Amino acid sequence: MLIFFFYNKSKLIYNFDQKMTNIESQKSVSLPPGETGLPFIGETLSFLFDPDFAKKKKSKYGQIYKTNIFGNDTVTMIGAEANQFLFRNENKYVVSTWPKSTRVLLGKLSLAVKDGNFHTSRRKLLAQAFQPRALNSYIPKMTEITQQYVEKWLQTKELTWYPELRKYTFDVACSLLISIDNASQTKLASDFETWCQGLFTLPINLPWTNFGKALKCRAKLLQEIETIIINRQQQPKHQNDALGILLEAKDEEGNSLTIEELKDQILLLLFAGHETLTSSLSSFVLLMAQHPNILEKVRTEQENLNITEDITSEKLKEMTYLEEVLKEVLRFIPPVGGGFRKVIEEFEFQGYRIPKDWTVQYQIAQTHKESDIFPDYQTFDPERFSPENMADKQKNFGYIPFGGGLRECLGKEFARLEMKIFASVLVHNCHWQLLPDQDLEMITIPSPRPRDGLKVKITEV
Ligand code: HEM
What we know:
Blueprint: E1 3-8, E2 11-16, H1 23-28, H2 44-49, H3 53-61, E3 64-69, E4 72-77, H4 80-88, E5 94-96, H5 100-106, H6 116-127, H7 132-156, E6 158-160, H8 161-178, H9 187-197, H10 210-234, H11 242-248, H12 259-272, H13 275-290, H14 292-305, H15 313-317, H16 320-332, E7 338-343, E8 347-349, E9 352-354, E10 359-363, H17 364-367, H18 412-429, E11 430-434, E12 442-443, E13 449-450, E14 455-460
Parallel strand pairs: 4-10
Antiparallel strand pairs: 1-2, 3-4, 5-7, 6-14, 7-10, 8-9, 11-14, 12-13
Helix pairs in contact: 5-10, 7-8, 7-18, 8-13, 9-10, 10-12, 13-16, 13-18, 14-16
Bound molecules: protoporphyrin IX containing FE.
Protoporphyrin IX containing FE (HEM) binds near residues 269, 272 and 401.
């Protein structure tokens, strides 16, 4: 065995069997271009409050750039190749991470903050609540809640829809996940709202900061969820909701979830199924109001389906044009703009060095603007997803509203189901139009929503 030693300023570089490990050339690979902003806060404020932050950075620096957000040196990597690299190297070069505020508020037992084998095993267990049989059993309740809300909205004639949609998705989530009806009218909802407001903030725990208030509410929410779990355990037969399924579920070694863990997992599911869905539903109603020809085609499909009885999974499968529209809604205004990963081993990508311990962000919103997959990407065009075009199948990880790889959204079928039922019931019963004099610019964090909350006039069909 030959061992080469080089003396280089302060360090010895060695090599085995003449396989030259060119550490010097690795070091000469540069970091991506970009700025790191102000001390401590970096560029966090622009990231949070400038809806064009990612767009401006991309036009200045291209597909890969560095910044500093949430107290971390961060590299943003844009495009299908970048997504593929990150999703395929999960646990090798990167692991999932969230801003500190999110991590703390989700809790240390939450699936979202776990890695490796533990994450895989827990994911399998939680996935039981989203299997086709479970999803089918959710259809009647989802439809019923949607119909109640639609009736209520029709009575008001004019409404600010986004806050109403938040109540609706919260009621659906609480009803199907933990069998609490009308939860939006309870203390659970107000605590939950305050908790949500702290999720993507600087983690400064003071009584008047959003993070400090959210921490207090986390404690209250866990207490409320614990009471719900204990009550449920005392009932002889568990109800057919996600909590019932999770109380029965066991991992490979036959262990059930402890109450402590169940509380964090329930909180995660309530959050994941609420914020994102509210955004996607409000984008659907907004985009339909702005594209009446497309809405008309959706209506025609619904009429032709002749739904006189309850909505069934078979009927939902026949809504193929609506499916294309909903895919385009998630491309055009993705509810999650991107995801964060922590670098566990330094790597090189497209000629740039990404150091260990930095954060990497993959970008959903910018990926969905890649013109090779989505020509004329500024146009809202559901035909991209027709059987002839299938834009979602053209390139690996080129269409990723639900992320990808080991961390792909666990609730994506639940989300697709709720979006379809909502759209079907709404289109069957209502016409709606945007009221004048409102700001439709999107606030993007944590999920996109129109600044003035989407004011509409709504009438019966
Ligand atoms: C339109 C609605 C939704 C969108 C766009 C969406 C999007 C996403 C994305 C992009 C991720 C991956 C984040 C990452 O890579 O770090 C994710 C993860 C996740 N989502 Fe969703 N989601 C939606 C609805 C839901 C619903 C309804 C649930 C459950 C009720 C849910 C549960 C989860 C969970 C548990 C994870 C974490 C998975 C893991 O870490 O293994 N999501 N979601």
